[in-house]
Structure prediction request, 214 residues.
Amino acid sequence: MAKTAALPPIVHPELDEITVEGVLRALADPVRLGIVRQLAAADCELACGALTVPVTKSTITHHLSILRQAGVVAGRQEGTTRYNSLRRNDLDTLFPGLLNGVLAAQR
Amino acid sequence: MAKTAALPPIVHPELDEITVEGVLRALADPVRLGIVRQLAAADCELACGALTVPVTKSTITHHLSILRQAGVVAGRQEGTTRYNSLRRNDLDTLFPGLLNGVLAAQR
Prediction:
């Protein structure tokens, strides 16, 4: 049986590496906006499986990777489960009001 | 001499046609962010020629069209000059905080 490969470490951009353009681009997608809304509503870490989005698991993983690279979401691996949370404090520090404005949108 | 064709009317989306996703996508570009920052700083209408962006006039026109279609910018034709302004009140009504958060960004 094939040995399970070690998962690559999860890399997150530091505060000074996060750009507003990158954040806007990451948020400008209906699936990723849905993920961000769910993480904001949960106000806690959510495993990928707990996210309700109309796409396959590998597509969720792809979108979470884009959100992580932009500095919107943080990921944490625990055993075989990856937990995701919104970097709300970091985003509020860098771009005060932006995230709340996005979350306030009715559509 | 060729007769100058009448310019097509400038169409703007109504408030209920503006989506957060469309606004985010329109803002997620360095040139368009630059235009929005200048319109916000001017706090008045600016003719296309008054905008300082490192692209050709036709590219500015293209970016302004994207910003208009998303509901971010309003255009007004006066003779041969097109004036542009930020739809700040409309955006603040729909997505309170979003625009200020974007404008607060240092990068």
